[in-house]
Design a protein that fits this description.
By secondary structure, this protein is mainly α. The protein contains two helices and no strands. It has a domain of 52 residues. Helices cover 74% and strands 0% of the residues. The termini are close together. The model has no long low-confidence stretch (mean pLDDT 87).
Length: 93
């Protein structure tokens, strides 16, 4: 029975990986352009603002991806738990 359980877990994990999106995700953040020199303080200030926005955009992207990882991991664990519960309740009687 344990072998059947392990086989089903392997099948479930394979099914999850097949359903996963194979397209590589990439952030849609605009990298700021840094000129060779700044002509004014306002230009420097604008660049610094753009740098902060770029950093925030990348940070938000990473946070989104980490949340998606956790969501998918929970879904996989729930499927495994569901299978194990089924085996315990229905097949081991």
């Amino acid at each position: 029975m344990k072998l059947k359980t392990l086989a089903m877990i392997a099948i479930l994990l394979t099914a999850f990986s097949v359903q996963a999106n194979d397209d590589e995700m990439a952030p849609s953040c605009s990298k700021p352009y840094k000129p060779d020199h700044f002509n004014s303080q306002a230009e420097l200030d604008d660049f610094n603002t753009d740098v902060q926005q770029y950093q925030r955009c990348l940070y938000d992207f990473v946070t989104e991806q980490e949340e998606a990882i956790q969501k998918h991991q929970r879904a996989a664990n729930n499927a495994i738990d569901e299978w194990n519960s089924f085996v315990r309740q229905e097949l081991n009687q």
